[in-house]
Amino acid sequence: xxxxxxxxxxxxxxxxxxxxxxxxxxxxxxxxxxxxxxxxxxxxxxxxxxxxxxxxxxxxxxxxxxxxxxxxxxxxxxxxxxxxxxxxxxxxxxxxxxxxxxxxxxxxxxxxxxxxxxxxxxxxxxxxxxxxxxxxxxxxxxxxxxxxxxxxxxxxxxxxxxxxxxxxxxxxxxxxxxxxxxxxxxxxxxxxxxxxxxxxxxxxxxxxxxxxxxxxxxxxxxxxxxxxxxxxxxxxxxxxxxxxxxxxxxxxxxxxxxxxxxxxxxxxxxxxxxxxxxxxxxxxxxxxxxxxxxxxxxxxxxxxxxxxxxxxxxxxxxxxxxxxxxxxxxxxxxxxxx
Length: 338
Ligand code: PEP
Ligand code: MN
Prior knowledge:
Layout: E1 2-5, H1 11-23, E2 27-32, E3 37-42, H2 48-52, E4 60-64, E5 84-86, E6 89-91, E7 97-101, H3 108-120, E8 125-127, H4 145-158, E9 162-165, H5 172-178, E10 181-184, H6 192-198, E11 205-208, H7 215-227, E12 233-237, H8 253-262, E13 267-269, H9 271-275, H10 281-290, E14 295-299, H11 317-327
Parallel strand pairs: 7-8, 7-14, 8-9, 9-10, 10-11, 11-12, 12-13, 13-14
Antiparallel strand pairs: 1-3, 1-4, 2-3, 5-6
Helix pairs in contact: 3-4, 6-7
The protein binds phosphoenolpyruvate and manganese (II) ion (MN).
């Protein structure tokens, strides 16, 4: 439920309503706008009938039910898009952010060469997997802490903030020490203990959509992070399972536009996993941006044919540079400094 206060409501009227909301068993999320204050009443144990009586309290204009099962992420509660700033780079601030780098960190030279090249091409952040969720236990599983150290070295040299996946609650502290944004992989979107732990992490979270998750389930997974205390969540559409078999996944562009309609959180798009095919990435990147995406996450490798994971969907360095020239012509990158 949302309590809309009147435009001229006083601080003491607002404080009184907040008190009553809490007495009714709800958490009060107060959003102070330029004109009026609204109070989101959220929680599972609240007494709704008692809350509804607040319509009679001084300064209250209306009580409006939140139409969706997700509350804190919903645009109904917060109409203004959220902007998440990482080392001076704004995600959701209007200018699309490009996160680029290899699927996995494999070698010192590989990650440093990629970091330099994607920076020169205009990327804003560097990605690279240290802990890899692989379908087969026999596939490359990532270099773990060694990869985190290499990512830190790449950031020190290029200034690019680091995005990398955290797969387990045990690794949250170590990954937070190195990374600027913690990625929750598609397979972990509904790993609720991990989400609860990340809600207490000191870093923003990039939450990938599960391969079989509806948009509602995706937003409810984000709700876990906000409900647990982390408001800095970036959603990432990365394709879903459908009956289509020519492509690795079906890149769900409508879900990008829909998520932008339903939530104030920034939404980025990953056409690399979304298609599984390098040749489709430029077209799907343009499509994602046209649908309203706040940024792109693109896999890039200096030699895709030698990549230890996701080579067929990785762009090479010249390919990435020419795509960037196309999607961001003559615009200077917004580089952060180390
Ligand atoms: C990745 O980003 O390399 C990755 C494993 O992505 P996803 O979780 O979307 O499959
Ligand atoms: Mn990958």
